[in-house]
């Protein structure tokens, strides 16, 4: 017979997975709204952000209830990781909502004629998020570790796109308002990749009890 | 993302348990113990560090209390017990033929699961061991009784009734009195066999606080069934199963990332 405690842990995992899928969808919808100048989709992403906020509250409540039962070893790691994952996923939702807001505003303006690698950056950030959540599902610390350096690719693209947009603003001051929307959206994609990296780091901790953030802590690295 | 729940978690790394840098005070080497034909301890080797709290954990019958009692030769009192291997405390093999067991038990005190004050006054309970050692001077005894009761965090509660019966104290106070009695003779090591298992949460918290205070002066080895208690008070933890030492190491490691699957199963309550 499965114990109540294990059942609660399974429910916590399930809740996180559902939250993860909502976060992934929010990002892809926000990016599509931006790329296709889709006002309706942008508005939907912003409205759905409340769903992720609600997930965060629910996962936190479940985790605190489980902590009160004093889990240990891998159970303890799962509960503490859940608290961190839910925060990262909620913030992914916030960033998606920011992109959607800029997509909404840009959809009302004429399109900018700019050759940016924004689609590639969006694909990379979305892929990082998807793969980090897959690593959580598969309990695959090797896959999680492999994702971490890829955040740098996103950062490099962010810098490159930022520079291009600034250059364009200098050349075409009347485009500044629209360029600022794009700058914010680009920054949000960069933050989404950061959160995906955080998820990957938590997966390593969950599986190996090694805290690899900030170069790792001493006692877990024995 | 797949809709099915995650498969069960596994600990994938086999990390060596670091025991810290302090020199061991107790060295148990290849210790086996037999009750007649039945082997209760199987080839146990374990170092216990000085002035830290070491917790012995494991299911009932795993040998943890038997091993604890080996550390002051309490098992000598049981008929048919045979011991192989060695236990060294400092430089001395406590199972060497010339060891004075009474002297050994002065160095290695013990506190039991059920508090067992003598049916005497609070004062006489604490002074008991000192009087056996030949201390007669009243002011010396008074000072030692006060120091021990203060050390056991009991002084303020009993200083006005030192000469009343110890049996009138609450369960938690009686257990702290037994700790005062154990430390009055200034042992190096205090063994505790589930010292808080019969106490309510408030009395348990006081005993746990006391143990954390005592480790400044004493090396403490405690048997406990309470995993949370082990995490709260111990620095090192050793897990036993069916007479074998399965894993030993820093408590934080044992309870967040044990090396052995049996330890993981036990501390997460998935045993058996």
How many domains is the backbone of chain A divided into? Answer: 1
Corresponding CATH architecture of chain A: Up-down Bundle
Count of structural domains of chain B: 1
Strand content of chain A: under 5%
CATH topology of chain B: Rossmann fold
Number of strands of chain A: 0
Structural class of the secondary structure composition of chain B? alpha/beta
**Element pattern of chain B in H and E:** EEEHEEHEHHHHEHEHEEHH
CATH superfamily of chain B: P-loop containing nucleotide triphosphate hydrolases
Instruction: Provide mean pLDDT of chain B, rounded.
Output: 89
Distance between the termini of chain A: 36 Å
Q: So, the CATH homologous superfamily of chain A? A: Phosphate transport system protein phou homolog 2, domain 2
Rg over C-alpha atoms of chain B, rounded to the nearest angstrom: 20 Å
Helix content, binned percent of chain A: over 70%
Largest sheet of chain A: none
What are the segments of chain A in which pLDDT stays under 50 over at least 5 consecutive residues?
none
Distance between the termini of chain B: 33 Å
Main beta sheet of chain B, described? 6 strands, mixed
Describe the model.
The complex is a heterodimer of chains A (222) and B (272). Chain A has 222 residues and is an all-alpha fold. Chain A has a single domain (4-221), classed as Methane Monooxygenase Hydroxylase, Chain G, domain 1, CATH 1.20.58.220. Chain A has 7 helices and no strands. Chain A has helices at residues 4-36, 39-67, 73-107, 118-138, 141-147, 150-171, 176-208. In chain A, α4 packs antiparallel against α6. Chain B is α/β, with parallel strands linked by helices and 272 residues long. Chain B has a single domain (24-267), classed as P-loop containing nucleotide triphosphate hydrolases (Rossmann fold), CATH 3.40.50.300. Chain B is 33% helix and 25% strand. Chain B is built from 10 helices and 10 strands. Chain B has helices at 64-70, 101-107, 122-132, 138-151, 155-158, 171-184, 201-214, 227-233, 251-256, 261-267; strands at 24-35, 38-49, 53-57, 81-89, 92-93, 108-111, 189-193, 219-223, 236-241, 244-250. Chain B has a 6-stranded mixed β-sheet with strand order 6-7-8-3-9-10, sandwiched between helices. A 4-stranded antiparallel β-sheet of chain B has the order 2-1-4-5, with helices on one face. In chain B, a hairpin with a 2-residue loop joins β1 and β2. In chain B, α3 packs across α4, α4 packs across α6 and α6 (171-184) packs parallel to α7 (201-214). The longest helix of chain B is centred in the middle third of the chain and has 14 residues, at 138-151. Chain B is globular. Residues 1-20 of chain B have low confidence and may be disordered. The A-B interface holds A 3, 5-6, 10, 13-14, 17, 20-21, 24, 70-78, 133-134, 136-137, 139, 141, 206-210, 219-220, 222 and B 1-3, 5-7, 9-13, 15-18, 227-228, 231, 250, 252-253, 255-258, 263-264, 267-270.
């Amino acid at each position: 017979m499965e114990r109540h405690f294990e059942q609660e842990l399974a429910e916590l995992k399930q809740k996180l997975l559902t939250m993860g899928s909502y976060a992934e969808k929010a990002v892809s919808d926000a990016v599509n709204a931006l790329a296709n100048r889709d006002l309706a989709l942008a508005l939907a992403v912003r409205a759905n952000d409340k769903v992720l906020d609600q997930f965060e509250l629910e996962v936190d409540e479940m985790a605190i209830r489980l902590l009160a039962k004093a889990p240990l070893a891998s159970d303890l790691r799962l509960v503490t990781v859940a608290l961190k994952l839910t925060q990262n996923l909620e913030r992914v939702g916030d960033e998606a909502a920011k992109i959607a807001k800029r997509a909404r505003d840009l959809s009302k303006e004429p399109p900018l004629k700019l050759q940016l690698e924004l689609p590639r950056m969006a694909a990379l950030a979305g892929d990082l998020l998807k793969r980090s959540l897959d690593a959580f599902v598969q309990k695959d610390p090797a896959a999680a570790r492999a994702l971490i350096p890829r955040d740098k690719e996103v950062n490099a693209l962010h810098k490159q796109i930022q520079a291009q947009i600034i250059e364009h603003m200098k050349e075409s001051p009347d485009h500044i308002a629209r360029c600022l929307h794009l700058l914010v959206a680009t920054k949000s994609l960069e933050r989404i990749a950061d959160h995906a990296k955080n998820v990957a780091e938590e997966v390593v901790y969950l599986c190996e009890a090694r805290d690899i953030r900030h170069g790792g802590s001493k006692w877990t690295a024995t | 993302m797949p809709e099915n729940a995650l498969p069960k978690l596994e600990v994938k790394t086999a990390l060596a348990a670091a025991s810290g840098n302090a020199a061991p005070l107790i060295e148990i080497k290849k210790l086996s113990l037999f009750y007649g034909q039945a082997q209760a301890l199987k080839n146990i080797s374990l170092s216990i560090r000085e002035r830290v709290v070491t917790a012995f954990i494991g299911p009932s019958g795993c040998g943890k209390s038997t091993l604890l009692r080996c550390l002051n030769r309490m098992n000598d009192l049981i008929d048919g017990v045979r011991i192989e291997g060695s236990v060294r405390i400092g430089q001395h093999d406590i199972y060497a033929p010339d060891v004075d067991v009474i002297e050994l038990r002065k160095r290695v005190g013990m506190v039991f699961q059920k508090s067992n004050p003598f049916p005497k006054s609070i004062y006489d309970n604490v002074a008991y061991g000192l009087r056996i050692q030949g201390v007669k001077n009243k002011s010396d005894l008074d000072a030692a009784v006060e120091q021990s009761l203060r050390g056991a965090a009991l002084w303020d509660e009993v200083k006005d009734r030192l000469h009343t019966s110890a049996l009138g104290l609450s369960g938690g106070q009686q257990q702290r009195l037994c700790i005062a009695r154990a430390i009055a003779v200034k042992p190096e090591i205090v063994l505790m066999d589930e010292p808080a298992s019969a106490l309510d949460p408030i009395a348990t918290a006081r005993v746990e606080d006391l143990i954390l205070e005592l480790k400044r002066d004493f090396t403490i080895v405690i048997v406990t069934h309470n995993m949370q208690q082990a995490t709260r008070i111990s620095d090192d933890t050793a897990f036993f199963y069916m007479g074998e030492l399965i894993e030993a190491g820093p408590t934080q490691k044992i309870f967040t990332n044990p090396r052995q699957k049996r330890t993981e199963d036990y501390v997460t309550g998935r045993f058996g």
